[in-house]
Amino acid sequence: MTQTDFAPRSLLYVPASNARALEKARALAADMLIIDLEDAVPADRKAEAREAMRAAVTTGFAGKRIAVRINGSGSPHQAADLAAVRGLALDALVLPKVDDRADLDPARPLDLPLFAMIETPGAIYAARAVAADPAAQGLIAGLNDLAHELKLPDGTDRGAMSHAIQAIVLAARAERVWCFDGVYNAIDDAPGFASEAREGRRLGFDGKTLIHPSQVEACNLAFAPSEREIAEAEALVAAATGGAQRHEGRMIEDMHVAAARALLARAALR
Questions:
Q1: Are 204 and 177 in contact (CB under 8 A)?
Q2: What are the CA-CA distances from residue 15 to residues 23, 35, 40 (Å)?
Q3: Half-sphere exposure (Cβ direction) of 10: Cα atoms closer than 13 Å
Q4: Which has the minimum average pLDDT: 165-179, 184-198, 228-242?
Q5: Could you give the domains of the chain?
Q6: What contacts 176, CB < 8 A, 6 or more positions away?
Q7: What is the pLDDT of residues 191-240, one digit of tens each?
Q8: Which residues are CB-neighbours of 51 under 8 A, at least 6 positions away?
Q9: Strand (E) positions, the chain?
Q10: Distance, CA of 252 to chain centre
């Protein structure tokens, strides 16, 4: 297996209009860079951002997977964004504000894997249908917009969005696509970020979207197997004889062995 057989752990948004950020991103340990044409770019700099994005992608980012986030359905900028990414060698195209499978339609002719952002109450209910679309490779939890749409008094209260968050994971797992946790806004709160990243992994996310380079290393650590997990997986695989059996005080069966082997395969690529 190669690293690209696994979902990226860290997905860093990089504003296409920020030349310094694009250059700095080349040296970061993020598994995927999402070059952003949407929220991070002011309306009067969209055309400039598209040109910068094309130049950056054409130059390449050695050892990294590259995605581009375009503007969403209904945006006057989407058509130009789609034209700008045509012909580029991308690992994914990120579509914001996907409320329905039809929101994927404008991007289908590009024949790229699509990451759909689930950002509204309607999108939560449509998440499984979106994930089932053949073009969809992953779902991204857009929790800032979701908190706003839900009219939450504290937009950082993930507990108030727990049902919605788990619905995104369930939809992705039901349709066997990847799913990624939302961003953490407090860029100076390293302990808070690390805690939320660990929680995201416990909830079943494959990785997390990021808004600042300082979050990359902590994210990779949170979503990578720990030394304890590796040791436990090695012991389980070594002890397995097939079928159900007792191992270190608990019952294991073939699915536990398969999960342990997958964990070890991922760990070998760190």
A1: no
A2: 11, 6, 5
A3: 25
A4: 228-242
A5: 3-223 (3.20.20.60), 227-267 (no CATH)
A6: none
A7: 999 999 999 999 999 999 999 999 999 999 999 876 777 667 676 777 77
A8: 84
A9: 10-15, 32-36, 65-69, 92-95, 114-118, 136-141, 178-181, 207-210, 245-247, 250-252
A10: 31
